[in-house]
Q: What sequence folds into this?
């Protein structure tokens, strides 16, 4: 028989094994280290952006990000006011949310409540594949197909609103022949955030216990009344979370927007005019920055973007977490 | 028995009401189906059009040649395919080990302060716009080393992949039955051995699916590469390796030369070509779009099919 060698009591290997609980101390040290590394990364991103934009924050002050009526961005003479880009970012993202929410909620209702089981899986997949298409491909398709075929006709239609007294500053036309405009960016963003919002809303609906549905149907409501008056209010905070995550995605989206928004530095209010979002400005100008202040100012824009998405994420996680806590883990029949 | 006027009114109202309710029901339910169709239009439109335009550009040379100067027909995007491969491999190397280890920690200790912080940090990381990652890497790597490089790009993509890797690995580890873990511990195996040779293999299929999804997402990303990898149309791994062997360089030096210079990646090339006013460049960008899309969608579909088949196998 082969003799199994056991390290003697005071052999260095035995002492090593004892002192590290047979390697467990090393292992837990390693996984804690990896976890700390990931955390440190998150903190480092915020801190580096904060530190690197210090000069810009001191020199440019709050005027850099506060609303101004005629924001100028002139790297050559060193005047930096980013309100035009913040405005474009907010406007395109909010419009995208406005368009995407009804569509996504409709999709989620269809997928969770109505869809025949044989169609459910392929449809789920297709909606999620929409999220997998790279954003540059969206941009390319946008420039050559979507803008001339869809956005330009819609833009020309909307230009009529430019005559209406209150709305005229938002719809001052005409839309450029290429279609590059804030409207185009908003519409591309709509397509891109639909899968995000629809998938989360669908999961929220699926997590609602069946007793709610049975109670509503038992009281004699139609299917739509059950969905509209019972399920949607029940899942409201989860859906808000989904919307905020979609908003976060829209705010940070870079490539597709850069390709269709026209990248103009002009500060106009109009949807039908080209503009620049914060992300698209970074994509366009960062490499060609003309001065240190220019670079720092753009890092400050990155910081602003980081802080906005951080806050949005906090809110969204809180809402989703609340739903998860409230909903009992009851399986759907 | 005569009906009172009151009952009559109720009856009439009931009829009118139920009709309205029925119609609302039918209209709204149909509408949800139509909205689903509406959302699928862009999917088919994009996929179809990219196949149509890209399909006419792609040939063998497209995959095997470097780009030619403008005005010369032909030429390919080999440089960009190689760049994508190098960046993606680097990103996996940077992201997978810490991601998997961190996932082991959260899966075991979800409620310790570090576990809670880590899960929150992962969520934040998943929400940070990808261009901000590019800025971050630019500030910490490109500025100190004074040049753009493949590994800066790889690192930027690695940060992007981390949340997906941590989350899927954590989910998969949680799905491993407790009995397996307890059995291994009961037999006297230490925790690390249980984790690495029992839990990890049991969850491996799902974990790899997570890797695949993370890779599919990062391959299509452009924004973090804009000011980290920059782009380099003369990139040729074959030439670097050949030159290295001829001048008897060590393996590390050759690898160093591969990763330490700016590279292109498919989405980056697409973006640059799409902005140029030359029709042949535009055609090539459609070709790149097709390659990119096929690659991403194939990975995505394969990963999902795998998950589905395994789910079915587990359910029996």
A:
């Amino acid at each position: 028989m082969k003799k199994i060698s056991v390290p003697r009591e005071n052999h260095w290997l035995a002492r090593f094994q004892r002192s590290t609980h047979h390697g467990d101390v090393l292992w837990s040290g390693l996984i804690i280290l990896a976890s700390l590394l990931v955390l440190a990364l998150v903190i480092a991103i915020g801190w580096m952006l904060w530190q690197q934009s210090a000069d810009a924050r001191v020199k440019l002050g709050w005027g850099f990000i506060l609303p101004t009526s005629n924001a100028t961005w002139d790297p050559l003479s060193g005047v930096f006011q980013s309100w035009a880009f913040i405005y474009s970012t907010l406007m395109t993202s909010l419009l995208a949310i406005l368009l995407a929410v009804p569509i996504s909620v409709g999709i989620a209702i269809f997928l969770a409540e109505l869809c025949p089981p044989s169609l459910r899986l392929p449809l789920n997949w297709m909606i999620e594949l929409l999220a997998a298409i790279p954003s540059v491909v969206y941009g390319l398709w946008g420039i050559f197909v979507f803008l001339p075929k869809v956005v330009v006709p819609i833009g020309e239609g909307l230009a009529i609103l430019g005559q209406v007294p209150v709305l005229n500053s938002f719809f001052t036309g005409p839309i450029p022949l290429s279609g590059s405009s804030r409207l185009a960016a908003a519409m591309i963003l709509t397509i891109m955030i639909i899968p995000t919002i629809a998938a989360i809303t669908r999961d929220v609906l699926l997590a609602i216990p069946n007793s709610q549905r049975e109670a509503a149907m038992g009281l004699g409501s139609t299917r739509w009344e059950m969905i509209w008056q019972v399920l949607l209010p029940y899942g409201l905070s989860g859906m808000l979370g989904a919307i905020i995550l979609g908003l976060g995605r829209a705010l940070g989206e870079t490539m597709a927007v850069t390709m269709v928004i026209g990248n103009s530095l002009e500060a106009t209010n109009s949807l039908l005019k080209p503009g620049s979002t914060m992300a698209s400005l970074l994509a366009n100008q960062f490499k060609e920055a003309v001065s240190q202040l220019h670079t720092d100012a753009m890092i400050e824009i990155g910081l602003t973007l980081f802080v906005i998405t951080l806050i949005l994420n906090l809110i969204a996680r809180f809402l989703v977490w609340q739903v998860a806590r409230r909903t009992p883990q009851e399986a759907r029949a | 028995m005569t009906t009172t006027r009151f009952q009559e009114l109720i009856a009439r109202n009931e009829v009118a009401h139920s009709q309205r309710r029925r119609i609302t029901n039918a209209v709204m339910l149909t509408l949800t189906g139509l909205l689903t169709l509406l959302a699928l239009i862009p999917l088919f439109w994009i996929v179809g059009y990219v196949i149509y335009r890209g399909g006419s550009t792609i040939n063998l040379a497209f995959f095997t040649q470097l780009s030619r100067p403008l005005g010369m027909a032909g030429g390919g995007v080999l440089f960009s395919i190689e760049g994508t491969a190098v960046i993606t491999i680097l990103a996996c190397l940077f992201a997978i080990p810490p991601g998997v280890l961190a996932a082991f920690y959260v899966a075991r200790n979800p409620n310790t302060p570090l576990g809670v912080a880590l899960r929150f940090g992962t969520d934040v990381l998943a929400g940070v716009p990808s261009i901000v990652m590019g800025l971050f890497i630019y500030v910490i790597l490109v500025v100190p080393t004074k040049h753009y490089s493949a590994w800066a790009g790889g690192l930027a993509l690695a940060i992007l992949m981390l949340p997906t890797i941590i989350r899927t690995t954590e989910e998969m580890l949680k799905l491993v039955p407790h009995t397996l873990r307890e059995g291994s511990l009961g037999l006297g195996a230490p925790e690390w051995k249980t984790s690495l040779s029992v839990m990890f293999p049991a969850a491996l299929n799902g974990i790899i699916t997570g890797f695949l999804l993370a890779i599919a997402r990062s391959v299509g990303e452009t924004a973090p590469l804009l000011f980290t990898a920059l782009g380099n149309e003369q990139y040729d791994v074959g030439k670097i390796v050949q030159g290295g062997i001829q001048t008897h360089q060590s393996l590390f030096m050759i690898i160093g030369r591969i990763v330490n210079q700016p590279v292109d990646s498919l989405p980056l090339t697409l973006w640059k070509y799409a902005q140029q006013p030359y029709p042949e460049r535009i055609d090539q960008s459609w070709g790149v779009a097709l390659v990119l899309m096929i690659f991403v969608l194939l990975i995505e579909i394969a990963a999902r099919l795998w998950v589905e088949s395994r789910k079915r196998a587990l359910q029996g």
Observations:
- Chain A is about 70% helix and 0% strand.
- Residues 59-326 of chain A form a domain with the MetI-like fold fold (CATH 1.10.3720.10).
- Strands of chain A lie at 73-74, 79-80.
- The two ends of chain A are 59 Å apart (CA to CA).
